[in-house]
Design brief:
2 copies of one chain form a homodimer.
Chain A lengths: L20 H8 L3 E5 L2 E4 L1 H20 L2 E3 L5 E3 H5 L3 H4 L5 E4 L5 E4 L4 H11 L8 E10 L14 E11 L2 H21 L5 E5 L10 E7 L5 E5 L6 E3 L18 E4 L6 H8 L7 E8 L4 E7 L6 H8 L3 E3 L2 H6 L18 E5 H5 L3 E7 L2 E6 L1 H5 L5 H4 L2 E4 L18 E15 L1 H5 L4 E2 L5 E2 L2 E8 H11 L1 E2 L2 E2 L10 E5 L5 H16 L4 E4 L5 H11 L3 E5 L1 H5 L2 E6 L7 E4 L3 H17 L2
Parallel strand pairs in A: 3-7, 15-17, 17-20, 27-28, 27-29
Antiparallel strand pairs in A: 1-2, 4-6, 5-6, 7-8, 8-24, 9-10, 10-21, 11-12, 11-21, 13-19, 14-15, 14-16, 18-19, 21-24, 22-23, 25-26, 29-30, 30-31
Helix pairs in contact in A: 1-14, 2-6, 2-14
């Protein structure tokens, strides 16, 4: 390819609103352009990178017996109503009316469309297990698109769905895909990525993993153990908080005028936040209040509450708070109206003694609250069913690892893939069945497997760049070799550079030649912005010695002079060795 | 691939509503499934065919220096308002509101999005010519989706756009793409396709071609000359209608009570339809009446009227007819209100003598109307500007060829591609400029080039099938070889078939093995439905002779027995020779 014709201008200035290095460099290097909020087009350079990512992804999906399909982007409202997700997706789902005023949606994911296929095509246990995948556009009306291709409203995703006759079969296949994902990410040049346990969503199955690219700019908070390699999204990570068991003191009700926060309460009572029970009040989509309690120094993770109550939850309205029998700022377990609400209690509350908590009475709190003694033991069996004890707290740096007790580290990540155990949620929801060996109808057990194709490119640039531009791994770089030609106005240089370009291209090397009459500084700056791993420079000076200079974008070793007649073979060897590094996984 | 695991059931019965053979076979063979009107999903077999079509298409686009991009499916209303097409596309364009109640559209084509890129990325004549292409989903809310993948509301298209500094440069590139298209269609196995001149749309450029697959089931009417190979869409085809020039008789006004059609008029006056001038009344989108006249035996093509008046036209309302001074059923040129309307007159009217036509007076017609004598010569210069003379008639079988006078043939086609001269319509409309050699701003001249990727598969099946299923050309067949295994219950047969399957696959042959315990008839029926070109059959009988049977889906020669140890190499040779047939173009 000739740079003189390449569509995509390089830009010297840092574009406005580009906070992440990847966002900035992809705009400056002409990899992409923004059309509107969360909607981008890929220019030729970006497209070449994404095509290579897609190709490697398909190879790995085919290697685990995946069958490629193409499901449509649009669907009827009725399809999504079969599982109730037409309602629960809310505003994230883009909706439109067709010319006949029929309600349509733009699929944000494809569980419903794939089960639509499975329920006509899969009829017998003999056909299972089976996996279908596609590389397709997804639409999600994100409230806050950000970071260029990191969080888009229209993006390219590889999504895959598997169907099984048993949990064991799914688990075995799940592990295969897990390995395929590790291979895929390594083959595309990802370095610092981890697989972490994650929340697997409402009504989902029993286990799921996210693949996270570790990056300080990431949106997700991760908890990892430096010793045993335990790692989890903060939404799922659990920690056995060791709390002191002291003598239970007697419950006391104290007057706390205008005290409405944990911070104010600790000051008022001269205690630490660890000695309090904090209330956070949610409600289900049907409006049932959910009063949750966690130790005062910790945060409640709403997704964990959701999983325990088995329903989506949102922040409670004033009415819900009243309905629960709670008083905002003075909410505690005792005195709640258990006929009207759920109570979700974190393990830290159960294991602690003598906590301060709200009295459900304006300007009053209790001290020396003990969960079992003062609350739980006094409930009848019906009331006990409304109280759920579990893990709803966010883990923190320094907490003990649940596996090995080592002190946990906190880090940030960009989610680049995920694999989910879905169970029979969708097959049951859409009445998708097969006949087992005994001729009996069964619901297939499903797994699903996503990779954010367009997100992976900026995620890789986040971990692989310097202050001049991206340092792209060979397998996803737009070209293998960037040929800079200095003083092209000298006709012999122009002639020789053309010869070299054609010769290398004929050898099967992907070469981008800078055939513009730009100054060296400008050529090198653009080459840095493109991030192509190998760079050769032909100048009057090197030509006088019958050489070109070979440089590496990552500066792994010092530039070397290579004889003109040898450069083709040197590059072929270097490229081959470089691919080996990524593919030997 | 193992048929036991292949997603996609074969169906014995002809599905309802499937009129075209391709539609029927693609459903019966499990190539695709319908989700809703005009919305289909590709199952693995169909996806493999489409992937191969896409790959060949990209190769040909790259060969003419195309640069692949990926523009988004969605766009803002504002982008489409820049050219006015947000309005003119009407209901064919799917529209939606995002969560912030911003008006969005699903792009039905990408001229506007590509010029959006060009106007920031192309700044200098040095960058031109340049071509960008993509393989991307398009959305068009067709009022009548039909024929499975033939006319969809969501479909995959390859669209390409070129930018040039001069008409000559565009013309030269246009011819290159024309040749690339011919190569592409031949390489995908198209046989009976033609390139025809076509209407190139409102305000479009000066020339355009459609590639049409000749098929009796096609939607488009084509006019072709068996002698000089002239061919055109009926919307564009022109014919020099030879009409008798007789002595001009004197104009006569006759009473024609209740005569409102050409048919009634000819009976009433005992003349032929060729001796009448027929009026068809349109109006522009702004509501200006357009009264068109054509010889009574011919049909008016509205797209030709549109091109002559340079505005979209629709059927006239009653108010428009009144405004033009016309009387429905008695409309003629004389007496129209030329201040309020346009008059478009077909050449056949100008060249004919003594026609019967309306008198713009209820129940009256003129006879012996002569265009020049009775109408045109009597207009002043201002009025003459409102009268447009041109070709607006549909050509018919038997008309003389405009190039060689041979009698034209009528045939039908499925449009599989098109190439358009766009001129500067979009670059001017969106203020996309570059600086020429003199530093002066210029609008790039554009061409655009489309291929209906998902439509091509059924179009090929339309021309290539028998009554048992598709006969797919090797380059787009889902697999190269279909291996039928009879009496697989005999363990030696099962063992040998597995060995053979693995051996052939290792030789790089794409093999589909029928590893189900189906009877021969059922296996052969499914193989016929899949349309894979080479078929080998392993049975106890052939195995006893150490052979397999080699059959051809198109029955080009009789089945042959081939030694088991030779079949791999025989297939490799046959496959190689077969590809050569398609690729030597």
């Amino acid at each position: 390819m000739r740079m003189s014709k390449l569509v995509g201008r390089t830009i010297k200035e840092t574009p406005r609103d580009s906070e992440l290095p990847s966002h900035k460099f992809m705009l400056r290097g002409g990899f992409m352009r923004q059309y509107s909020a969360g909607i981008y087009g890929l220019l030729p350079l970006g497209m070449r990178c994404v095509s290579k990512i897609e190709k490697i992804c398909k190879e790995e999906m085919n290697a685990v017996e995946g069958q490629e399909v193409r499901m449509p982007c649009s669907a009827t409202r009725e399809l999504w109503e079969e599982t109730g997700r037409y309602q629960t997706f809310g505003k994230d789902m883009m909706k439109f009316q067709d010319r006949h005023e029929k309600q349509m949606v733009l699929n944000p994911t494809h569980e419903e469309p794939v089960v639509y296929l499975a329920r006509t095509e899969i009829t017998s246990y003999r056909q299972l297990p089976v996996m279908m995948y596609q590389v397709q556009t997804k639409f999600r009306d994100e409230p806050r698109p950000r970071g260029g291709l990191i969080r888009l409203r229209e993006f390219t995703m590889k999504d895959a769905y598997s169907f099984h006759t048993s949990e064991e079969d799914l688990k075995q296949y799940y592990d295969q895909v897990f390995n395929a994902y590790n291979r895929f990410f390594k083959r595309t040049g990802c370095k610092n990525f981890v697989s972490v346990m994650s929340d697997n969503g409402l009504f989902g199955g029993r286990y799921s993993h996210e693949f996270q690219m570790l990056a300080p700019t990431g949106e997700d908070k991760l908890i990892t153990c430096p010793k045993c390699k335990y790692s989890a999204n903060e939404e799922i990570s659990t920690s056995p908080f060791v709390t002191k068991k002291s003598v239970e003191l007697s419950l006391d009700k104290v007057h706390t005028p205008n005290i409405k926060t944990i911070d104010a309460l600790t000051k008022c009572l001269s205690i630490s936040a660890e000695q309090t029970a904090k209330a956070v009040i949610f409600q289900t989509l049907e409006g049932i209040p959910v009063v949750s309690f966690v130790r005062g120094d910790l945060e409640v993770i709403d997704k964990k509450v959701r999983t325990l109550v088995k329903s989506e939850v949102v922040t409670a309205t004033h009415d819900s708070i009243v309905k629960a029998g709670a008083i905002a700022g003075s909410t505690g377990p005792m005195g709640l109206n258990l006929n009207n609400c759920f109570v979700v209690v974190d393990y830290t509350i159960v294991k602690s003694n003598n906590l301060a908590t709200g009295a459900n009475e304006k300007d009053y709190h209790f001290t020396n609250f003990n969960f079992e003694r003062d609350f739980y033991s006094k409930l009848n069996e019906v009331e006990k069913k409304k109280v759920i004890i579990g893990d709803i707290a966010a883990a923190r740096e320094g907490d003990p690892c649940p596996q090995c007790n080592e002190s946990l580290k906190e880090t940030r990540g960009i989610e680049i893939g995920n694999i989910f155990h879905l169970g029979t949620k969708y097959s049951e929801g859409m009445e998708c069945t097969y006949l087992d060996q005994n001729g009996k109808k069964q619901y297939p057990i499903m797994g699903c497997y996503g990779i954010g194709i367009t997100r992976l490119l900026p995620a890789i640039i986040e971990e692989s760049h310097d202050d001049r531009g991206p340092i792209l791994p060979l397998p996803i770089a737009p070209y293998e070799v960037h040929l800079c030609v200095l003083n092209r106005k000298e006709s012999i240089i122009q002639e020789k550079s053309e010869e070299l370009y054609i010769k290398l291209t004929k050898q099967g090397i992907e070469v981008l030649i800078d055939d513009r009459d730009e100054k060296p500084g400008s050529q090198f700056a653009d080459a840095d912005l493109f991030g192509i791993p190998f760079r050769i420079i032909l100048s009057p000076k090197t030509f006088a010695e019958g050489c070109v200079e070979l440089k590496y974008r990552d500066n792994r070793i010092e530039p070397r002079k290579i004889k003109l007649e040898e450069i083709g073979n040197v590059l072929l060897t270097e490229i081959k060795d470089e691919y080996k590094k990524y593919n030997n996984v």
